[in-house]
Amino acid sequence: MTFVDILLLISILSIWGILIVNVVLVIAGYIYYLRTVHQPPKPLPKDPPFVSVFVPAHDEGVVIVKTVESLLNFDYPKDKYEVIVINDNSSDNSAELLAELKAKYPDRNFEVINTDAKTGGKGKSNALNLALKQARGSVISIYDADNTPERGALRILVGELCSDPKLGAAIGKFRTRNKDATLLTRFINIETLSFQWMAQAGRQQLFHLTTIPGTNYVIWRKIIEEMGGWDVKSLAEDTEVSFHLYMTGYRIAYQPKAVTWEQEPQTLGVWFHQRTRWVKGNIYDVLKYAKYLFKKEGKPIRFDLAYFLSVFLLLMTSLVISDIFFILSIAGLVHSNLQGFSNVLWLLAIILFVISTAIALSTEKGELTLSNVLIIILMYITYSQMWLIVAAWGMVQYIEEKVFHKKEKWYKTKRYS
What we know:
Layout (H helix, E strand, L loop, with lengths): L2 H34 L14 E7 L6 H9 L8 E8 L5 H11 L5 E6 L8 H11 L4 E4 L4 E3 L3 H10 L4 E10 L6 H25 L9 E4 H6 L10 H11 L3 E12 L5 H22 L12 H29 L8 H23 L8 H12 L1 H21 L14
Parallel strand pairs: 1-2, 1-4, 2-3, 6-8
Antiparallel strand pairs: 4-7, 5-8, 6-7
Helix pairs in contact: 1-6, 1-10, 1-11, 2-3, 6-11, 8-9, 9-10, 9-13, 10-13, 11-12
C-alpha cells in the first residue's frame, strides 16, 4: 500500500466515522420525535416566575418592530415578563422605531437600552451583560432581533424549565422564515431542521445532552450571575453557557414545541461572514474547555468536546485531503489502488446523507417533498463544500487573531424587509 493509499484510507475512515455518528444521532432524534410528538407541553406553575426577555439589536430597523410586537404578544401572563431591547450603537432608525413602540405600548413592561460607541458596539455578549444589570426577572430569555416566536413559545419554555429542579435551561426550535427566498435559504432551511433532530434531539435522546442556540431559550438568572455574566471574548456565547451548565450539574431540555421563526442570510457574502463568526466562536469555546476532555469534571461535556474537535480538526483535514486527491486524480497526477473503493464509499455516503436528512425533514409537515430531496442531493456536493471553506477560513482567522493579538470583529448579519 502506497503513502497515497494510506492517506486516502485514513481520510475515508475519518469521514465515514463522523458520518455514522451523525446517522446514529438522526435515528435517535427521530425516536425522540416519536416519543414526544403527542406529549402536551409542561404547564406553568401556579405562580410563574418573572421573565426578562433580552433582544440584542444593532442596526435592526428593518426587522425590530415585528420582533418586539411578537414578543409583546406572548400568551405568558403580561405582568410576569418584561422585554428589554438593547439598541446597541445603531446608526439606522432603530432608536426612533423603538421610541414609537414604547409610546404605542405604554402599559407594558417594555424597556429600551440605547448604547453608544463607548458603552456598546462590542458584540452580543456585552449587550446581554448590559441588559442583565437592569433586568428584574429570575429567568432570562434571549431572542435575536430577527425572530418572530409563536405566541406560546415563552410559556412552553418556562413550563419546561420549572418542571424539573435539575434543569438549568430549556431551549426551543427555530424555523426559517424566508426559506423560499433563494436557493441558499432553502439549503439553510434543510440544514436547521436536520441539525435540530440530529445535534439536539439525537443527543437529548442518547446522552440527555443538548446545546443552547443563540435564540429562543430560557435560563435561570442565577446561573448567568454565577458565571460572572456572558464572556465578552466569545463569539459563540451559547456554547460557552452550555458547557458551564453541564459542568455545574445542570441539564438542558430540548422542547421542540416552542417555536420561533428567524430570518436567514439570503446571499453568500452574508452567510459566509455569519458562519465564519460561528466557527471562530466555537473554536474559542472548545479550546477553552478542551483541558477537561480527560478530566473527571469534564465528563458531562466529553461527547461534545470530542465531537467538535473531530469536526473542526479531523473531518476538515480529511475532507481537504479527499478533495485534493479527487482533483489530482482527475488531472491524472496521482493514482491510488483504493480509487474504485473510494468511489463506492463516496456514493454510499451521498445515499446515507440523503436518507438521514430526509428522515429529519419527515418530522415537519410539508417539508419532505421531491424538490427538497433533490435539494438535499445538491447540498451534499455544494453546500457541504462551502461549509468546508468556512471552517478552514474561520480557523485561519482565529489563529491569525491570536498570533497577532488582533481584536475580533463582530460582523453584523444583514436583514431583509
